[in-house]
Amino acid sequence: MSGFRVQNRGLIDRHKTLSFQFDGKSCTGHPGDTLASALLANGIKIMGRSFKYHRPRGVWGAWFDDSNAIFNISLGAIQLPNCPAATTYLEDGMQARSVNTFPSARFDIKGVLDWFSPFLPAGFYYKTFMRPNWHLFEPTIRKMAGLGKLDGNIIEEYQSDQIHQSCDLLIVGAGPAGLAAALSASQKGSSVVLVDDHDIAGGSSYQQQSNIENKPASLWIRDQIAAIAGNGGRILLSTTAYGIYDHNLVALIQDSGFGHAPRLWRMRAKRILIATGAIDRQITFANNDRPGIMSAVGALEFLGRYGVLVGKKIALLSNNSHTQNTANLLREAGAEVETFDTGDNSPVAIGGKKLRALNIDGKSHSCDVILASGGLTPVVHLWRHGGGRLEWNEAIQAFIPAQATTGMRAAGAANGIYELDEALADARAAALDQPSPKVQSAYQIKALLPDINSKKRQWIDFQHDVTVKDIELAARENYSSVEHLKRYTTLGMASDQGKTSNMAGLAVMASLQNRTISEVGTTTFRPPFVPVPFELYRGVKRQQLFNPPKRLALEAEHRNVGAAMGEYGGWLRPAWYGDDDPHNTIRKEVISARTHVAIIDASPLGKIEIMGPDAEKFINFVFYNTLTTLKPGKIRYALMLSERGIVYDDAVITRVDQNRFIISCSSSHVEGVNNALEGWRQDGNDPDRIFVHDTTQNWATITLSGPKAGELLSKLDMSIDLSPDAFPHMTFRQADFLSVPARISRVSFTGDPSYEISVPTLHASALWSAIAKAGKSVQAAFIGVEALSILRAEKGYIIVGKDTDGETMPHDIGFSQPRLRKESAFVGDRALHTHAANGQNRRQLVGLMVKGNECKIVTGAHLIDQSGSKPRSIGYVTSSYDSPTLAHPIALALLENGTARIGESVAVWNQGDIRQATIASACFYDKGGGLLNA
Amino acid sequence: MQQFPCPFCGLRNEQEFHFAGEAGKTRPDTMKEVSAEQWSAYLNHYNNPMGKTCEIWVHLPCQEYFVMQRDTVTMEVFASEQIRKDLK
Fold this sequence. Notes:
The complex is a heterodimer of chains A (934) and B (88). By secondary structure, chain A is of the alpha+beta class. In chain A, helix 4 runs parallel beside helix 5 and helix 10 packs across helix 11 (482-489). The longest helix of chain A has 14 residues, at 217-230. Chain A is elongated. By secondary structure, chain B is mainly β. Chain B has one domain (1-6, 17-25, 35-88): Folate-binding superfamily (Folate-binding fold), CATH 3.30.2270.10. Helix content of chain B is 10%, strand content 41%. Chain B is built from 1 helix and 6 strands. Chain B has one helix spanning 36-44, and strands spanning 3-6, 10-13, 17-22, 52-59, 64-71, 77-82. A 4-stranded antiparallel sheet of chain B has the order 3-4-5-6, with no helix packed on it. In chain B, strands 1-2 form a two-stranded antiparallel sheet. Chain B is globular and about 45 Å long. The termini of chain B are far apart.
């Protein structure tokens, strides 16, 4: 027991008492407390255990610069893991558990790991568990590692708001510098946003009990806030700027209280002012990780903000002038304080869980707390996120902001200016984008070189138990670049992100290599500056809003007749109709389509119109097949290739008239095809002579397919001659349907006669009703996408991207002619004549058959060649179904040299099982094609 | 998140754009003999400079392709202009 609450200090509300538990022990605190300050006030010093050796840890800093105290916290039904104790505000009824400890932080069973520490140096795990195989050890090691535990419960309504805003000037940090800057800029009419991660503005001003510009600090702060607000400036408290991204986008996380999702602000700022202040650097000495050894600035924060004195008998160890007043402030609050200069001495902390003394210069000084101040360190993380450079300032022994990127400045302590008046002048100049005034700094600091020869353990990274010896080992094994050092030793990883450990680590490396700290350099600073929950990025983008499907104009009609809807290529479409067993339902739908007639909503099919005097030349270039010979009123199947000669999409192309075509591409490729068309149109052609217009969603399309398709169509009274001679397969007609224009394409995706009827989307419902009504007399059935997939596979019609892959060229799927004969240039032409394209063992589309009583082959199964010493994959199954029409299973596959092997048998491998299938042509239904022309 | 100036719609977020290629590349005339090396260079060889580049991008909402000059290191955008010169 050493910390305690003092009277008349701090910003907490002493009228209210909050109860909470820590590792099962009951404690109290006040509104305004963090868990760390409340625990210190309750005399609790051990708040966690280190990651590797499970050494006891107390808090080092009072805010984001503490990575020792990390808790699992429950409040009511809500439990959150990995809450930093120093930045989580206390609420009544909280139950906090230190992470990675059992049964408690104070008595942790795994503390015995520390006994083995001589055998567990940096890189131990890498070296030891390499052989025979890391995966043997991984589960056990993972169990021992890690921090908090998720309880698995989903918190209802835990949903982050995401707000996008912009401003002229974003100021990060509402300390004296930030406030002064915000007021100056807002007076000039700039739109100013000032953010601070605390719930009260004022920054470091609560540490020193001094005046600001001849006013008591609290009064000065109040006046600034009122004036900024009066000028229209905005102040966001409890809001942390955790990352600066390209083009001055600043990510802000606004705390909403425990258990409530934080809010994300994406703030686009014309200018950014970094006024993030400075934190204390640790001192590297023997046993410097003991609970009770804290940052001197942190101790003043605990006193100034929370009214907590961290100890009764304090040893203050410092190498700099900033702590001159610290001892007095602590004494005034009631502590006994002895001050020590780091000098050339090598101090040693004496004590275990309880600190007993500081040994220095051969003398022992009893104490319960050691405050260590290794020098102020500007918080430059955001500066580096934003692309600003750093330079080493020898006088203040710190990296400070140097060359900036457009629109970014730093001011005050973050800029290495620690005296209040100078910092205010610097901030005001920065706010108005004027040059900084020259500063003569009174701050003094002695360079701090760690004793690298000491036999005792000196700690660099408290969270990961990285010691001077580990860094020495890394340097010896040539991991001397800071980036290697970090990864080899885990120095500065996880929630610390180098905030406390970075400078100490660099100093050790510099000493080991006889280099300066600036030569060693820093590791890369990356967002986020503080840990943020994934929810922040998710917000409302969940379920359907994450990836909204396109909806059919006829969705209500489909649901009325019992459609089971599913997502296909970005569209919500009927998968099948009815509530019965899906397998049987789909089978029945296929049989209805083959024996009578099927009604299919084909509205998602692409309808991209190409118009203009150069339209013919253009599509003849963009598509693989020759289209100059296509006559008006006729339809042709065509492939679109990439410039690499790979099949990108297939489409049926209708020539409406001389200068007008409709490209009916795959439903899921409409955007891609449209983009490719626009790309070629604008970059390489005269865009005044070609127009590309995607009308897919302007037209609803219903397909009638089956032996009675013509009979059903004739009942719609569109007065067109449907006889096969007058309206043959692959032709197009325009008609009237109830006085609106209708387009009818006789084109088939099933192998049976089919008519695709399109009307303007507004009239979709009328067409649907008319077809449904007329369909009754011909036993028409609504069928979904699943049945359609089977129908097309029976006929051997491919789905590009399913039955083709990133290597499939047109001659692999049976379209060889244009490659050899087309007389004009087309996209991908040269690529069809490369060495690879002419290869002997190309994978070609084939069908596979097994006996009727066997089960179907698994899609994705490998076709293998067993003739060599080891089996080799020579292809795979792309589509596989039980064919209701043929009463046996069928499959499509891509197989090396497949067309030459039709009739042969091939071994099919799936998860270790091997069976035989017969290679067949890819068409199983109406091979002659006679039905299409009926 | 960068912001790019579409010559037609103004400054918009990077998400609305697609990279379409390096500016100044010409498709070989495939009606003449094109060597494998020439074709490969057309498909695969990008200068990918560190620093100033000139690229073709497309702004997806308006579907216009345009030329943009930018710096791949500092992310600074210098200028964007429509591919069609005659509209000026």
